[in-house]
Amino acid sequence: MNVRSAQARGLRHSLPTGPWRAKNLAPDRAQPSRNSVSLYPARPLQNERQPEFFCLVAGILLLVRLPGGLPARGVGQTGTVPSEAQLAEGIKLLGAGRFLESVKALNSAKQNASQDSRPYFYCGMALAQAGRMRDAASELGEAVRLAPEQLDYRVFQAHVLNELKQKAAAEDALAVFQKEQTAERLDPAWLRLLADVYYRLQMMDQALKILDLWAKHEPADPRVDLYRGQAYVVKGQPDMALAAFQRSLEKSTDNPQAYSEMGAILYEKNQLPAAKDALLSAVREDANKPEYSSKLAAVYLAMGDPDAAIESLKRVEAAGPNMPMIYYLLGRAYRSKGNPARASGYTEKFRQATSAERDLEARTLQAERPIAQAQRQLEQGNPAAARDLFEQALKVDADQWEPNANLAEMDLNSGDLQQAYPHLRKLEQIDPDSAVGNFLIAQYWFKQKEYERARMYAEKVKLSRPDNSELRALLGDIYLALGQKQKAVTEYEEAVHLAPERIDLRERLRKAGREVPHPAESSEQ
Fold first, then answer.
1. DSSP label at 4?
2. Other Cβ atoms closer than 10 A to 429
3. Which of 252, 334, 392, 395 is the S-S candidate for 342 at Cβ 3.0 to 4.6 Å?
4. How many angstroms separate the most distant Cα atoms in the chain?
5. Inter-CA distances, 287 with 283, 284, 293, 411, Å
């Protein structure tokens, strides 16, 4: 089986496609003068939003515990209703933060009705919260396939794909919202997440439109104008951003991010006393956030007060390895005080931290670029060129999941089992619970005529992918080889039920000893 085929594609949603890890940079800003430092980071601004994002997801998890907060089953789905008790238990565990227990309960619910979208969706949410983004993407891809009309599925899928740095795929997931009034059908919690996803995708015009919709539901929420301001910052409209942050603070002064953003803009405008007041408010509201203290220190330096800058920075110096700007500012402060030895020490720390960061980014890019190029070669029908690029990526980092998966699949399809095996072992080491990885390993052992081993891996995939016709057909082949004809017939019957248009599956069922009516005949009865 080619796991890029139409029916098997659900098993491959976890694989990044296209330019899957393009760096999303904010627009260039005016360069600071030699005597000042920009308070905006060189990294994407979405990094500053990450704590807020987790608040958004927490709000959505609250929805799953409310009656009526559950998405309906997908329109047009077939099969029996799953065990509502199992589904409810999985949702309850998800809301309680017991994510992997939730996945287990939801997988049980799938077995009773493999084509109900809800267990897949909630599995995706639970796995995302557990940090297993690749597996979450796979589950959410199944949910969307089974119920494409569920808009909340699309929003969360786009979030997960963006976390995997699959920008193009995330944008594809959100394409449904290009139609006028579609987003109006979302509840406020999903509008908030949708605006956040657009922001992190650097799609600011779309983010602003969604924020306008959210404002209609909750006009007094200070986060609406906070997010508007952040979007205007990225768009290079500081006056619009400043006005938005001020409106946010009028609605709530318990708002350190708004104070911080406003202070940064006032600093860039050289309105230093006002910038200092805003940043002092941000630090008072959240003294544990090093970003706020480092911005305040930059303002103190611009005002000629290195002692106050050092006091501000010393509180957050421990964050220096992850925020090298702290070392840079301490170096400047000690140089201003006439202490070149300490200034040099911090300058060297800044150099080392930024050098390590650049080296990591360079290695990451060196490994990721050939993967994106390989995907394009596959799309253009050049598997040999794609293989060379995937192998090039593994020379940089042998522990990358995608090139190992693609190379294993190519080798299995060509019959080169010896060459496939190291890639399959690596897949299992990287992610032993991956449905895609376990499916490929099941194929390998079947081809090796190690049928019991093949059954073990295929049954493991069935726990999370009972709706995949290719998997059910493989299980039929395995049980037939094991001499368990009735189990083989059951699997073939389910494969035919899932993909009635597949003549090859019907033929396998016939050869196993069970006649099956043609789909046209079945519909006439």
1. T
2. 12
3. 334
4. 93
5. 5, 6, 8, 55
Q: What single-letter amino acid sits at 101?
A: E
Q: How many Cβ atoms sit within 10 Å of the Cβ of residue 385?
A: 15
Question: What string of DSSP letters covers 373-433?
Answer: HHHHHHHTT-HHHHHHHHHHHHHH-TT-HHHHHHHHHHHHHHT-HHHHHHHHHHHHHH-TT
Backbone φ/ψ region at 41: left (φ over 0), alpha (ψ -120 to 50), beta = beta
Please answer whether residues 75 and 149 qualify as being in contact, where contact means their C-beta atoms are separated by less than 8 angstroms. Answer: yes
474 contacts 1 by C-beta, under 8 angstroms: yes
Of 203, 57, 192, 195, nearest in space to 133 by CA: 57
Which two three-digit tokens encode residue 524?
């006439």
Token reading at 230: 């952040």
CB of 290 closer than 8 Å to CB of 316: yes
Q: Coil, strand or helix: which one is 448?
A: coil
391: tokens are 């192998």
Global pTM value: 0.78
Distance, in Å, from the CA atom of 402 to the CA atom of 166, rounded to the nearest integer, reads 13
**pLDDT tens column, 367-420:** 788 988 998 898 899 999 999 999 999 998 899 999 999 999 999 999 999 999
Neighbours of 370 (CB within 10 A): 21
Query: Exposed, middle or buried by CB within 10 Å (0-12, 13-18, 19+), for 142?
Result: buried
**pLDDT tens-digit profile of 293-347?**
999 999 999 999 999 999 999 999 999 999 999 999 999 999 999 999 999 999 9
Q: What is the pLDDT of residues 40-53, one digit of tens each?
A: 443 333 334 443 44
With beta carbons less than 8 A apart as the criterion, state whether 403 and 391 touch: yes
Are residues 298 and 291 in contact, defined by beta-carbon separation less than 8 angstroms? no
Torsion of CA 207, 213, 219, 224, to 10 degrees: -10
CA 2 to chain centre: 26
* pLDDT tens column, 107-160: 999 988 888 999 999 999 999 999 999 999 999 999 999 999 999 999 999 999
Nearest to 94 by CA among 119, 67, 68: 119
Contacts with 15 (C-beta within 8 Å, 6 or more apart), sequence order: 402, 405, 406, 436
* Closest of 425, 429, 410, 387 to residue 395, by C-alpha: 387
> Which tokens is 88 given?
């409810």
Task: Output the CA–CA distances (angstroms, integers) from residue 18 to 277, 295, 327, 378, in the order listed.
Answer: 46, 37, 38, 10
Distances (CA, A) of 362 to 358, 359, 366: 6, 5, 6
Q: Do 170 and 154 meet the contact criterion of CB atoms below 8 Å apart?
A: no
What lies within 8 Å, CB to CB, of 140 at 6+ separation is: 13, 120, 121, 124, 153, 156, 157, 160
How far apart CA 339 and CA 141 sit, in angstroms, is 58
